[in-house]
Structures are given as structure tokens and as C-alpha cells.
Amino acid sequence: MTIEIARDVGPAHIDIAYESLGDAHAPPVVLIMGLGSQLLGWPDGFCTELVQRGLRVIRFDNRDVGQSTHVTGAPAPNAPAVLAGDNSSVSYTLSDMAGDTVGLLDALGIASAHIVGASLGGFVAQTVAIEHPRRVRSLTSMLSSTGDRNVGQPHRKALALFGGAPVTTREAVVERMVEVFRVIGSPAYPFERDAVADRAGRAFDRSYDPLGMARQGIAVLASGDRTPRLRALAVPTLVIHGADDAMVDVSGGRATAAAIPGAELVVIDGMGHDLPRSLWPDFASRIAALVHRSAL
Fold first, then answer.
1. How much helix, strand and coil, in percent to the nearest 5, is found in the chain?
2. pLDDT digits 0-9 by tens, 31-66
3. Could you read off the pLDDT of 118-143 as tens digits, one per residue?
4. φ/ψ of residue 188, rounded to 5
5. Strand partners, 239
6. Cα-to-chain-centroid distance, residue 212
7. Angle between the 193-206 and 170-184 helix axes, to the nearest 10 degrees?
8. Helix (H, G, I), strand (E, B), or coil: what is residue 97?
9. C-beta neighbour count of 180 within 10 angstroms
10. What CATH number is given for 4-294 in this structure?
11. Backbone angles phi, psi at 120, to 5 degrees
């Protein structure tokens, strides 16, 4: 893994840690990962599948995770207050995170790219397409939703994961992540405990900032419903969702596809809120097909 740091990125002038894989002249595909997840959340093998299909892959750490800039000196995130309409504890919004993504494109000299987002990363990807349409050649929204609180909500078993005492040691953080993915993972596919634990350990070693994850969470809450703006998009779009997603109910994926004109919806039975290894070739083929269609 060769991580590089882009400095003074976007309107916020932050540092973004990223990795570029594949031929620099191939169509660029930018991968945006979800809540509290680093670029490691995009498995190496999945990225290899994309590269093998003739794509340049760029994965990066969102602000507040990994080796990108972390917010300091900000108010403590207060989700109940945000839900009640008080945004005084909100440090940034999805629009700001979208600005980071476009800023990274600027830093890399890329005029436009194919944007792929998973979970919160899907929220950001949608926002990039809405607010910076000339920078987006195609959009893939995975495991995501529209911001409408009537769809895409966590199931009870997923909500239960947010309770309990905070964990701070490497061992405890790894075990917590194993527990989380055992609950929200794909019931019809093998649970790869060792792979989850390895990824969580490597992420901890790079950076552990639970407040950063909380700041990202309230950025979602403060950014509202994107549905009306999604209806105005004119970009080739693929929506992928698991029928058994307990973290973002499949209704979120269905609503996303229904809102974006011409979007293709793929719902996978037995898939939860993760990227099962055996589905990597299918995901990569679908994304590559969209990319190549968009180039015609």
C-alpha cells in the first residue's frame, strides 16, 4: 500500500490521505467509504478487481478518519440536539465532505471522475453529483439512502450496537468491530472474522478517533433529505443494495434508485451492510460496465 498525502485540499484546505491504483491514464474511479471507515474499508481484492477491468482506482480517507485531517477544538457532537433542530454542535456537513472529494480531484489534476460511495460514502457521492455535476461521469451508490428519514433506517439489532461502554484499546476496538460486522454483515455469505479483525487492527494503528466518527454521523443528520435534488440529476447511475441490510434498510436503496432518473437498481438477496468477497467480481463488473457505457 502506497499512501500519499494531498495538502491544502478543497475549500477547507485540509490534508487528504489517498492511494491511486492502476494505470494513471485509465478512467478514474473514486471510492468513498462510510461512517468512521478509512480507505481500508475498500478491500484490496475488490480494488484489484476494478483495476483488472481497466479502471484507475482512487480510495481515500474522509476527513476525521485515518491519516486525513481530523477536526480539533470543535464542540462535542450532540446527535439528539441535531435531531431536534439544533445544529450548534455540527462541525461540517455532507456538502463540505463533497467539497473535499472534488478538492482531491483538483489536487490530482482530474477534471471529472466516476464516483462510487458506500453507506455514508454514498451520501457524499450523491452530494458530489448534486452540487458538482460537471465533475461526475457516473455515480454508483451502494448500501446507501436519500437522507429521507422515512427510508433506509437501521433495524433494531443494528441500533443496539451503538450502546455499551466506550472502547479504547486496540484489542477491544477490534473485538467491537468483529461484533458489529457479525450483526450487520451478509447472512447468506461466510462471515470472515479474521479479515474483519485484520482490517480493524490496521485501521486502529493508522488512527482511532471515535469523536471523528460521531462528527461524521451528525453531518449526515444535519444535511437533510436529498430526494428533490436527486430527481434533477442527469448522470448514469447504479444503485446496489443488500436485501438483508440491517444498518441501512433496503428501502433506502430503492428510494435512491426511484429518485434518480434512469438509475439501475440491483438488490442482492442475502447481502447485508458489507462487501462479501464472493460478490467483488460482480460489483466490479457492474461498475466497470457503467463506466464504459458512460464513455460512449
1. 45, 15, 40
2. 999 999 999 999 999 999 999 999 999 999 999 999
3. 999 999 999 999 999 999 999 999 99
4. -95, 0
5. 141, 265
6. 15
7. 130
8. helix
9. 18
10. 3.40.50.1820
11. -55, -35
For residue 256, what is its C-alpha cell? 435512491
Distance CA 289, CA 238 (A): 10
What is the full DSSP assignment across 27-65? PEEEEE--TT--GGGS-HHHHHHHHHTT-EEEEEPPTTS
Strand partners, 241: 267
Instruction: Say whether pLDDT at 290 is over 70.
Output: yes
Mean pLDDT, rounded, for 165-188: 95
Strand (E) or helix (H) holding 254: helix 250-259
Mean pLDDT of the chain: 96
Q: Which helix (H) or strand (E) element contains residue 223? A: helix 210-223
Cell reading at 63: 476527513
Q: HSE (CB half, 13 Å, CA atoms) of 261?
A: 8
Total-model pTM: 0.96
Taken in order 290, 29, 258, 262, the sign of the CA dihedral is negative
Phi/psi for 288 (5° steps) reads -65, -40
Domain ranges of the chain: 4-294
Cα distance between residue 280 and residue 152, in whole Å: 23
The candidate with the shortest Cα–Cα distance to 140, out of 150, 126, 154, is 126
What is the DSSP secondary structure assignment for residue 251, as one 8-state letter?
H
**What mean pLDDT is predicted for residues 81-105?**
96
Residue 205 burial (CB < 10 Å; 0-12/13-18/19+)?
exposed
